[in-house]
Amino acid sequence: HGARAGFPRTLGQAEALDRICELDLVISLNIPFETLKDRLSASWVHPASGRVYNMDFNPPHVQGVDDLTGEPLVQREDDKPEAVAARLRKYKDAAKPVMELYKSRGILHSFSGTETNKIWPYVYTLLSNKIPPILSDEEK
């Protein structure tokens, strides 16, 4: 669950980060609300074992039941679509001043899309232009 959102997510976190390092590049991925809601709501759990299924990436063989026991799967409260929507709205409100801060410093780069493999080439190009290539000993 922890890896879902980026860092820093709040102005307080951004200020704490400023104290330990100087950022020269911040990447923001703009993914449509509905896409995020669908993806985050795709998690279902087998309560007895804790096995987690994702309807997009590793669905159960039979919809709604655990592969090993055949018992019903449930959705965690915070993975239900309504809860996910509320979490996303809260995140957006908290992240807005963070975005403004980095935009004002001229270090914010935003990318929009719904699929990682389509967004990644643009992110890779940006990073390649920012980071000097590492030369091997033979090339130096």
From TrEMBL:
Gene3D superfamilies: P-loop containing nucleotide triphosphate hydrolases
Organism from which the protein derives: Ceyx cyanopectus
UniProtKB keywords: Kinase, Nucleotide-binding, Transferase
A Pfam family hit: ADK
Lipid biosynthesis in keyword set: no
CDD domains per record: ADK
Residue stretches spanning the membrane: none
Superkingdom: Eukaryota
Signal sequence range: none
A molecular-function term among this protein's GO annotations: AMP kinase activity
Name of the molecule in the record: KAD4 kinase
Domain annotation Adenylate kinase active site lid: ranges: 44-78
Protein's UniProt keywords contain NADP: no
Family: Belongs to the adenylate kinase family.
